[in-house]
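Reopening this one. Same input as before:
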Amino acid sequence: MRNQLSKVINISFVQAFQELRANKLRSTLSLTGITIGIFCIIAVFTVLDSLKKQIKDEVATLGNDVLYVGRWPWMDEGGEYKWWEFWRRPSMTMNELHAVQANVPEAGVVALQLSINGKSVRYNDNDLTGVTACAVTAGFERLQNIDVADGRYLSASEVEGGVPVAVIGQEVYDRLFSPGVSPIDKKIGYLGKLYSVVGRLRKTGRNAAGFDFDDCIIIPYGSVMSAIDVRSFNYDPSLMIKAKPGAPLDEMKYNVQGALRAARKIKPGQPDDFAINQLSQVTERMNMMFGTINAIGGVIGGISLIVGAFGIANIMFVTVKERTKYIGLKKAIGARSLFILIEFLIEAISLSVIGGTIGILLVWIIASLVNLSSDELHLGLSAQNIFIGIFTSAFVGVVAGFIPAYKASKLDPVVAIRSV
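Same output, byte for byte:
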């Protein structure tokens, strides 16, 4: 029995490839639906899985134990996003930083950061616009991934004293300096001051917290306080608070809220005039968005697979008709109906899997091209997604091929042999 089944399976695979060779155009058109369907599904899964891994890795690196406190909540609070109210909230200041440091025992690192946009950076005759300056207090480097490629990061004394020194991103370096020229100790003009460059960052891209250090300069917070009004509605300084190892994040969040309410003299019953955010909010919202995209990709792929299933069924009905005499002869010499059914069913599965494999190969080729052309996005075709593609293809083959295979297995051998 086992040997017979193995022989039937081998014959079925051979006949599937013979069908492809004998009827190239018909088979290609019929398999196109399966190929497109599997391509759509696996492509969506591959992109989303890669993005999820990238975000998860960034969150793990940055730490999910960091609170980001400012005017603006990152997500809506269950209703309309009241931007006009958030915009009027008072800014975070050194007063709030000191309040958290003094009154939140769970806080390990507390830093104040201000992103300044729309200003220009100058070096000799090069005037560079569109650069973001990150004005920071001590501890910022312990809260973000600061990877220095040349020189060093800002020292604690430079940050505390508001010394005009800067660490520049890779894109700022590329646009301000000639290739091969070291930026260390060079003077760049910013906000009417000359900043001495002490370090250059390695290219990293935008992280999950929204920082893009490639097109950025990092400077001491105190160095900009005399040049701009940090309390203005045009700027939004934010506090970043990292919990001590083992400290409960929820407890720290509660104490941070209490310390800031006390520092701002907010009365009981009045709402907070600040927002406490954390990276888990971003991942939760991204998971919701990914779920929607998954569903859309599944619908598109499902429609293509239905079309492909009709194509496979069409091939198999034609194949059964072409082999009617052959089926009659096999049954006349003792072939069991079950083996006839299995033979045609495996042939349908083989054809479907071939179409699905082509779709998976297309995903792999496109992912490889994307990886070669992009440093920020890496697409990986996982073994799990390959298995999903092959299994889905095989399932479609079973569904599409069962009726033709069942019809073939029920043919009367006498009638089949006499057919023309």
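So the earlier flakiness isn't reproducible anymore. For the record, The mean pLDDT is 80.
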